[in-house]
Known about the structure:
The chain contains two helices and seven strands; from the N terminus they run ββαββββαβ. 26% of the residues are buried. The strands form two sheets. It has a four-stranded antiparallel β-sheet with strand order 3-6-1-7, covered by helices on one side. It is elongated. By secondary structure, the protein is α+β, with helices and mostly antiparallel strands. It has a domain at 47-75 and 89-133: Alpha-Beta Complex (Aldehyde Oxidoreductase, domain 3), CATH 3.90.1170.10. The longest helix is centred in the middle third of the chain and has 14 residues, at 44-57.
Amino acid sequence: MLAPRRAKHRKEFRGKRTGVAIRGSNVDFGEFGLKALTCGWVSARQIEAARRALTHYVKRGGRIWIRIFPHKPITKKPPETRMGSGKGDVHEFVAIVKPGRIMFEMGGVPKADAREAMRLASAKLPVRTKFIVKEN
């Protein structure tokens, strides 16, 4: 599971989910990409599930790049706990995804295989996505 080795602060505010991605909005490494169309938080478990779907479909062929990393800690309080008594403990880490962000890239496989693998991976993610091909 992906998680940061260390962080400046253990707990963070929730933050805003507005705006579009400026960085990471082009296919740079592979030939095909999976682009986010909506904003949201993608957890480390969802990233791992999508990665496994990609590698399983292409039978470990080609090359896969994961362009997002879960830096943001999300806290959660235990069930049936009364209000107050501070912020909860860190429950998981998420990646902040904005529209236009390339989340996964793939290369070295045929276009039809890449499209189907990305479709299977997008089913594991909480944001709407689009399959894109690198422009020459």
